[in-house]
Write a structure and sequence with these properties.
Layout (H helix, E strand, L loop, with lengths): L2 H12 L41 E5 L2 E5 L35 H4 L11 H10 L6 H12 L13 H13 L2 H11 L5 H13 L3 H9 L8 H10 L3 H13 L5 H11 L18 H9 L24 H13 L5 H8 L10 H16 L3 H17 L3 H13 L5 H13 L3 H4 L9 H11 L10 H11 L5 H8 L3 H16 L4 H12 L3 H13 L5
Antiparallel strand pairs: 1-2
Helix pairs in contact: 1-10, 3-5, 3-23, 4-23, 4-25, 5-6, 5-7, 6-7, 7-8, 9-10, 10-11, 13-14, 14-17, 15-16, 16-18, 17-18, 20-25, 21-24, 22-23, 23-24, 24-25
Length: 538
């Protein structure tokens, strides 16, 4: 290592905050983000005043003179703006307006958020998406990716953009989150970069992320990130020096010290047990454990971590389980699941192997258009897919080809229901396999958008029916629409339907009515069909 290089590393390490001053963590809707970069103090903020520092100061004869505090002195402001004034840059594009899907694609208005408040919209975004109803997940994903005017109070802060990205990360939609971050500029703020860095860690692109960080002087890496990136670049000496300097300055927690020391020199700890994983586990911590040959299981971690098991480095069983989990969340396309299920012959029996075997046998029979074999194998394959709640991806893959076969018995019923769960529900609902009982007739009516005169066969159907016969807007949502807060009305529809699944079925009526009143007819019908056909209650 050159003297200049050595000096630079020491200077970087010395620049780290001392242990006595805790680094302020950025606010986030999710608690497992890595502290990869430091967040600067907000513009216009000042360092905390020490007790010995006087409250008031004045300038006298060109120097600053200390004055005693003044009794009942009015609060001093740092600018001439009144409180709670929204500002924006003239001619500039607010970060909160960034999106991937323009209005001509989504069908949403340009002023999707109207005069809404960013904090209230962000709260609705955080609450929505709790019910695992695929049609509602699809609507939520579209809202998160929509390009629209920023809310009136945005002031270019990017707070709503961060809320949208955090929701995508929470759902496990890493590709979509990264695309949104890229559109906004990954290095334009520390908060955007730390999310981009975590996506890279979970998708095996950490070396590229470290290179981006290296070329972005406006971003200051934290100690753990600096050591990690130096080591990934092969500069182990600089990484070790940075860590030793932090140790000498007592500028590192015991947990980080133990983990980074083992990361840089694993042989020194040969035979010793790994330190317990911290809580919460961040993508950076997960990647370091993985580099040490001690990968932490992702099954109990947030869905975003499942992406780490999609890589070729993971075993086939782990890949399938990760794809099942992400398919259930609507974060990946059904073809990913298809490719993994059919990748090779199952190695054993039970659990994931039984699902792969049933899937493969059914797929082979359908490919050959062997009606007898399809009738035999479809019921078991569908039962296995229901076990892990991926019926809609299964329907998306196979409903169309199945509709071309003249099936009978249980297979015909399943094929018809898969058609109702597929994107082609309206066309496939007219199949000759449709039943004539009250439930079948009600389902066919939902697919056509009219259940007038039909008997509702159960409590869920009774909650759905009014939304398709006489939809009424709740007063509070009608007020949102009057204020052009259409996006919030959509979010409230999602929230209410999901709340209804937990017991208060009148909320299902309200939510579906809102969707239909907003012109989201396709989403309303698909949601209603899924509420009837899928077991997603409470």
């Amino acid at each position: 290592m050159s003297i200049n290089h050595l000096g630079l590393c020491v200077a970087l390490a010395l620049a780290l905050p001392t242990a006595a001053v805790a680094e302020k963590k950025p606010l986030s809707a999710i608690d497992w983000l890595s502290q990869s970069v430091k967040t600067p103090m907000p513009k216009g903020s000042v360092a905390p005043r020490t007790p010995a520092e006087p409250v008031s100061t004045a300038v006298k004869n060109g120097t600053q003179a200390n004055l005693p505090p003044v009794a009942n002195e009015p609060k001093v402001t740092t600018d001439a703006l009144p409180d709670q004034v929204a500002t924006t840059v003239l001619g500039g594009t607010s970060l909160d307006a960034v999106g991937l899907l323009p209005p001509q694609v989504t069908g949403f208005p340009h002023d999707l958020w109207g005069i809404g408040h960013s904090a209230e919209i962000a709260a609705d975004i955080a609450e929505a998406g709790q019910g695992d109803v695929p049609a509602l997940q699809s609507l939520l994903m579209t809202l998160l990716l929509a390009e629209a005017d920023a809310p009136a109070d945005s002031a270019g802060s990017g707070d709503l953009l961060i809320a949208r990205i955090d929701k995508l990360l929470t759902m496990g939609a890493l590709d979509q989150a990264q695309a949104l971050i890229t559109a906004a500029g990954a290095t334009s703020s520390p908060e955007l970069f730390r999310r981009s860095f975590d996506v890279a860690l979970l998708t095996g692109e950490e070396d590229n992320a470290c290179e981006v960080l290296k070329s972005a002087p406006g971003l200051a890496p934290t100690l753990t990130t600096r050591v990690f990136c130096l080591a990934r670049a092969g500069d182990w000496n600089a990484a070790a020096l940075t860590l030793r300097t932090a140790q000498a300055l007592v500028n590192i927690s015991a947990e980080d010290d133990a983990l980074l020391s083992r990361f840089l020199d694993p042989e020194q700890f040969d035979g010793e047990p790994m330190p317990p994983a911290p809580k919460p586990i961040t993508p950076l911590v997960w990647r370091i454990y993985d580099a040490l040959g001690e990968p932490l299981p992702t099954a109990t971690l947030p869905p975003a971590f499942a992406h780490a098991d999609l890589s070729d480095h993971a075993g086939w069983k782990s890949q399938i389980e990760a794809a099942e989990r992400l398919s259930r969340a609507g974060a990946i396309t059904p073809n990913v699941l298809l490719g993994l299920y059919t990748d090779r012959a199952p190695a054993a029996s039970g659990g994931v192997w039984d699902r792969a075997d049933a899937f493969q046998r059914f797929d082979a029979a359908l490919t050959k258009a062997d009606v007898a074999a399809v009738e035999q194998r479809l019921p078991l394959a569908y039962a296995r897919m229901k076990d892990i709640e991926v019926e809609v991806p299964f329907a998306t893959l196979f409903a169309g080809p199945l509709a071309k076969l003249r099936l009978s018995g249980d297979a015909a019923r399943i094929s018809y229901e898969l058609g109702l769960l597929s994107p082609e529900y309206e066309r496939l609902a007219k199949s000759s396999a449709a039943g004539t009982d009250a439930r079948s007739l009600f389902l066919a009516g939902l697919a056509a958008g009219s259940v007038k005169g039909l008997i509702a066969p159960d409590s869920m159907a009774r909650a759905i029916a009014p939304a398709f016969t006489d939809p009424q807007l709740p007063a509070d949502i009608a007020e949102l629409i009057t204020q052009k807060r259409v996006g919030e009305a959509m979010l409230q529809a999602v929230i209410r339907i999901e709340s209804g699944l937990r017991g208060e079925l009148v909320k299902v009526t309200e939510g579906l009515s809102v969707l239909r009143k907003l012109g989201l007819e396709d989403i309303a019908r698909r949601t209603a069909l899924q509420l009837m056909l899928l077991e997603r209650r409470g």
